[in-house]
Design goal:
346 residues, 24% strand, eight-stranded mixed sheet, alpha/beta, 14 helices, binds S-adenosyl-L-homocysteine, five-stranded antiparallel sheet, 16 strands
Length: 346
Amino acid sequence: MSLKQKLIDHIKDNGPMSVAEFMAACLYDPKHGYYATRPSIGGESADFITAPEASQMFGELIGLWCAHEWEVLGKPAFNWIELGPGRGVLMQDAQRATRGIEAMHENSNIVLIEMSAPLREEQAERIENAEWAERLEDAPPGPSLIIANEFLDCLPIRQFVKGEDGWHEKLVGLSEADQLTFGLSQALPGESEDEPGAVREIAPALESVIYEIERRLHEAPGRALLIDYGYVAPEGADTLQALQNHKSVDPLKTPGEADLTAHVDFARVAHLAQEAGLAVHGPMPQARFLRALGIEMRAEALARANPQHAERLQREVTRLIGRDQMGALFKVICLSSPGLPPPAGF
Ligand code: SAH
């Protein structure tokens, strides 16, 4: 039975589901979910491309950032944790760029938080000496450097829509012809100034991840560097997006076959971390962060060593920091244990 039919039957028996439940089924259903069955990241034939897939310089610079922050922590034995490593390219590039810093590698315990079996296999091919965990909670205790690129956007969101008579939760239900369709709950209590038509999104699973980062960074020193596309001030828009073969598709049409994501509410992430007593740096645009880490100098050095690649390297820099590419929509935020100096690049 297809996931679509399974969802239709589920709604027939139990009534409409929240957008978060729908997203979770599409992404994580063990038999039909996108990440369990057909995650496709990277090349031309893939569904979407990410920064580490676009250029090796991304993972290299983040690797050097981690080396610097490991020194700031006093060079301890530490967990080098990546959330949602995809094909493992970022960590592979980070390991290569820091190979000369032997003491860092001797002291690092690489922990990859990944629930997708096919992606774990790909990660194992690229990353040396890694261990895996399903959830951040399951990573060993101790000092940590946590990195995540395009992980938070996968976490399921609930959506609320302002109507003339107040807020309604957006739900996935059935049309008269028993096809999946969006609908609204009855009006919920609560006032706000938003115009009718405004959409608000909350991400309970993202809040749990931030909570777990807080717990870990209070227990032992460390930092979390989180990179994703998202907003600093909510615009009241619907940010749920389904991508297949680099094209935007109807999220209800082929459940489990497209990648589903939502924009990250960075103001909320910053607020939660601040309330919990962590130091927060950013969010700031990816372009500013990568420039501060010296991406342009890195590209020039690589181009001098390999002049035949100069054009490609320039294209990659533009891809990562161009205002109309990944440079502005993508944001970087760093959460740190209290008492540490500001992280590099901020
Ligand atoms: N960081 C990679 C991949 C981004 S795609 C890159 O930049 O290319 C999102 C990744 O997060 C995938 O590896 C996916 O399997 C993983 N993922 C998504 N939701 C997850 C969850 N709830 N728990 C663990 N891993 C998850």
